[in-house]
Fold each of these.
Amino acid sequence: MRKKIVAGNWKMNKTASDAESLVRALREELANFREADVVLCPPFTDLATVSRLIQGTHLDLGAQNMHYEKSGAFTGEISADMLRDLYCHYVILGHSERRQYFHEDDALVNRKVKAALASSLRPIVCVGETLEERDAGRVEEVVSTQVKGSLAGLSGKELLDTIVAYEPVWAIGTGRTATSDQAEDVHALIRKTLAEMASEAVAQGVRIQYGGSVKPGNAKELFSMPDIDGGLIGGASLDAHSFAEIVRAAAR
């Protein structure tokens, strides 16, 4: 049975002092929680602070992006080895905001995914359609193409070390949320695509998160769907109590 995983994507929010306050509150809220994996993904400037504060806890650390090269003349970029040195275990790749604002495509995401896995980082690979693509009936085409392109060339073991996050772009930060049935349909499609790429056994082992305006009020219903294995949480992860409520919903 797949263990649920809930990751908080803080995006470009929280100074180091803000991060310390949030993590201290989360440690208290989730002190005895073990039923799901919990990952905190702060900005790069907060990674060292959060890493220090979660030592000895069950909370994991993730980054929001990375470069595919190990080092070199790439001003402003961060490598996988730099993240590992701060005890990061996860990294978000291909988020819709990276695709939209920084023009990242599946081929670039794929290079980053392979670099992350080579450095023992678990990638959280984001896929999802825009409202225009959904209205045009292109959900299956768009999502399956992103999955195949972003995860091209991975072995079965590498796929099992990868988390896929389905984030309908039209439901990120808009207050709109896919219904549990809509989300489940796309998660099932992703699992079917993974089976075609590898095997049914591998597909059944890969964890697929939902991301798109998840809140304490809708988390339980979303997480109860058979192919939804947790959430990639944006805005609600900036509040300790809200995020903890979502995390606890993953255990029910």
Amino acid sequence: MKTPLIFAVLLSLLGLCHTTAGAEESPNPANEPPPPPHSSVQFINATSVPSLDLDIKDFHKYEKVSQGSKISGGDFPFTSWKLRIQKNASTDPKAFFEKELNKAPNTASTVVLLGDFVWQRDPNGKKQELQAAILNFDHELADDEKPNTLTIVNGVIQQILRVSINASEFLEIAPMSHHTWYSLPETIETTAIIGSQQIRVPLKYNSSFQSGIVAFYEADGTIKFTAAPRLPFE
């Protein structure tokens, strides 16, 4: 029996923060190196574990990031990101996932964290691969990626997500993968089905927000979602 869950989501209310200078600064004195290139990133925890630890190498650590949480992007003085994620309070020191992201200067992106941090094993029980992943989405759209744009992420392990936009034909999204729709109308309703659970997500775009991400994940046996905008670097 399908259990409908109806959520009204105004993505325009979900902000992506940037830190900008409050006043114009004077030019650097002669012989001083130029300021470093900047970039911005926001993180979405769509894993299937209660909480995880996120380490931005040589910069900052976020501990006990709960499922569905978003860490808003800020203005960071570098463009190369080395990220490490692992289950909070993990007793397996090797059960972590790392990835390096190299950004163009003055760009923004969203990084979605996925997985249950369980080892996949071969028939002999030998560890093969950790079920964890990172998806990176640039906020700067290409010329053929016109808003309104919506990216759906299936963060559920081993279950297919079926998605319909405005009662269109359902599209299947494999576990720990995504699909993006372009040129959507101002108001849409997304219907998502995983197993016996059905979730309806009404979305409304406006002039200040025309691109977003909705990530589905599993928490305590229930399918949930979190939504965030994709705003350009400012």
